[in-house]
Amino acid sequence: MSDLATRLQDKLYEQRISVNAFSKKVGVSQQAISKIIRGETLNPKNILEIATALGVNAHWLKTGEGSPDAGVFAFTSEKDDDHTLRVDLLDAELAAHSSGIINAEYPDVISSIFFTHEGVKRILGKTTTDGVYMFKVPTDSMAPTITQNDIVFIDTNVKEYIGEGVYSFNLNGETYIKRLQRLPTGVIMALSDNPLYHPFEITEDLFDTAEIIGKFIKAVELKPKDL
Q1: Which partner for 217 in 48, 152, 153, 202 could form a disulfide, CB atoms 3.0-4.6 Å apart?
Q2: Is residue 127 located within the same domain as residue 152?
């Protein structure tokens, strides 16, 4: 029977995803994932998040027992006895930069999805979906944090800058999703995680006119088996 390190490494190889990209997807450090692969961490506390990001059964990933099939998926496009917590597609145009086709490739069938209670806890870190919406980013400017194959979840309960993080916001008639960082001068830096896209500055006065739509929670790869 293989060990956790081998199972994780094999799945990353199968899915052609780097340790760095996967660590960002899970929301942990690259060092933490590397320690698991090297066999230094035998019982990671975030095994559920890792399994969800891989799309595999957490018990199988941890122990090697049973099937790698994830079984009941965390979310689906139709409500049933397991999937009861609803998240709707945000009624707003969100792009990873000011140009690009907005939601052009988002399938009509995915106007809403339904989570299991466990799925909401594991993926969103919440007990409710109140104020949580999803959207599809059609560009790669926030890669690898957000890719064009991801469903992105934001918390619209957050209506102001509450510290460095990824936000969706309207500014001067344009809608953005960027990593925002306030400098000691009061200037806000709007950063793209993809180094091919240049950051830009937002003055304090201009940022006062911005409308914060919500704060980024999680990006989950959209797979046909999920929906």
Answers
A1: 153
A2: yes
